[in-house]
Structures are given as C-alpha cells and as structure tokens.
Amino acid sequence: MQGDGIRVLIVGGGVAGLATVAALRGWGATVDVVERAPGPTDSGTGIYLTGNATRMLDVLGLRESVADVAVEITRQRSANQRGRRLFDIDVATLWQGVGPCVSLPRAQLHRALLDGVGDAPIRWGRQPVALVQEGDQVAVEFDDGSTGRYDLVLGADGVNSTVRRLTFDGQAARDLGQYAYRWVAPRVDDEPVWSVQLGRGKQFLTIPISADQVYCYYNDGPVADRPDWRDELGATFTEPVATMLKALDYDDRTLHAGPNQEVVLDSWSRGPVLLVGDAAHATSPNMAQGAAMALEDAVVLASSLVTADSVAEALRGYEVRRRPRTNWVLSQTHRRDKATGLPPALRDVVMRRLGEQMFRSNYGPLFAQP
User: Fold this and answer.
1) Which CATH superfamily hosts domain 7-173+261-367?
2) What is the Cα–Cα distance from 308 to 247, expressed in whole angstroms?
3) What are the residue boundaries of the structural domains of the chain, listed by start?
4) What is the C-alpha to C-alpha distance for residues 322 and 16, in angstroms, rounded to an integer?
5) Boundaries of each FAD-binding domain copy (predicted)?
6) Does the pTM exceed 0.85?
C-alpha cells in the first residue's frame, strides 16, 4: 500500500513519535505531529541505548548523528551495595553484529531526532481533546479548538498517554512499586562503564553520558519522595554515591523523581487509532528497552503499512509481529525485579554464579531483527 492520499496524525514528539516520522518518510502520506510540550527542551537526564536500539537508528538514517554526541559503553558492571563485584559483561562483544551500546543526554538524543526529521511539521503545545471514529477515519479535536480528519492516528505520547486515555477506556499505567530519582553529576573517571550497585529491592546506577557528565539513577523502592532519601542512599551504598550526591548540593535542577510504571493492554489499536512505544507497552527501566522498543515499533510499523493492502490490515499485522518481542521484554523486567528483591546473601551467590548467563538470556531474542 502506498501512502498517497493518506493522512496520519502522530501524537507525541518524543523518541517514539519522531522515529515514526523518520520511518514514514518516502511512504507518501501526509503526516502531522502534535506535541503537548511547548517546545524542545534542554532539560532531562540521560539515556542508555542497547545494540538493538542503535541498529534501528541505523535503519532510520539517524545513527551517525547520535553517535557524534554519545559515549560508547563497552562494559556493564554489577556489584552489591558494599561495592563487591558480582559480575561483568563485555557488552561490546555481546552486541557485536547488532549495534554498539551508547549513552548520551536525553536532550541530545531528542535534538538528533529532530534534526533527522528535518522540516516535519510539529505543532508544539497542542494535544487532542477528542478522538471520534467515523467510518474508516478519525475526527480529532485539538485543545486550541481546531479539528482534523485522519486515516491513521498514532498515540506516541508516552506512559501517561492522552490518546490511550481518550480511546482505550481511560486505561492507566500501573505503578511497579518503585520510586526512582534521576540526576546528572560531574563525571569522575574515564572508564566507559555502565555500573550498578544492588541493595535489597533498591539499585544505584551510574552511566557516563558525555566527556564530563554521568547519569545517576536510584530506585528507592515503593515509598514515594521520602524527605531523607539522600541520607539513606549515602548510608546504604558505597562510592561513588557520596560524590554523586554532592552534585545535588550544588545544583539540583537536573533532579527528576517519580514512580516507575508499566502499561499492559489486550490490544494496541481501536479502529484506525494505534498506540506505539511507552503508550502501548511501557516497562520497568531495568532492561533499558524503552527507547529501543519505540524505535523498533517505528520501523516495523512502516514496513507493515507498505506491505499491507489497507490500514486495518497493517495494524493487525504490526501487532502480531511486535507482541512476542514486547511481551518478552515485559517478562524479563519482571524476572529482574524479582531477582533484585532476593535476600542480599542469596542474591550475591546467585549473581556471582549465574549473573552473566542470566544477563545474556534476558537479551537473547533481541539480537535478532524485530
């Protein structure tokens, strides 16, 4: 099917939305994008892209622009809360033939994607307030009072999706019992290593995202926004925790806090309305697959639209193709969360003996093309 004469609305100008714009270039459809944020932002923390994510950036013609501003991560290191090593993974070897693992400031990734879609029309500060299916089309009303009719509406608007709320009976994301803090601190070493310390049901992670910055992530367990979380973090984990916390004493503007959530739906489409990325299948961040799944969604959706005879057929084929992969990621994030909740002595024994094997098995199916 060619896209000539087809009107597509993409709701969301983040990773999922912009990747879909890039994937649909050349298909022939008229593509509109709305994003509720007032414009691009330089705020945010960091993001880690595994090899299956950078492979999709390559397919979309965006890998070089991202690589120019990213740090290539060659090793992942896991330790207990006292800093004693449990296991290391050579991720450069693990993902060889798929793509490099890289990390960068989230704003830099967004900028690279924006540059990659060029002059795609994005209406900033806008979102739908009503979506009504009329035959094979969707009538859309926006929050500025304007309206439009579309043959395909894509909800790429994240875990708290407006499209999902309007079209999928208000189905909300569900909390995972994890409250997380994220911030950026000065980088203290030159080693390109993703490093995590594991407490019981808690984790502290650092990832270098530039020559002079490191992304810090702390999962504090189920209690939201405890006033003394910094003191407990410093007392529970060893260095570089204390050094990373000092960065917040000088400047806490990069600090972001909130619950980790997941989205599980029986179907991702309602007529010609389809959810993609976190709007459809958000998971715990412990596999670092949020952006990867969104990028894969974009490429597979474009392929499905080209090979199908109708939009309806394309959406059915897309979901059949994507479900096994996203379900795998969901199941593996649950397994990982359970493993980190084990009593520390038992967890340390299991991780030392089986950690590398478990890690490889978590990602095994993702080495193949989506």
Assistant:
1) FAD/NAD(P)-binding domain (3.50.50.60)
2) 52
3) 7-173+261-367
4) 14
5) 7-330
6) yes
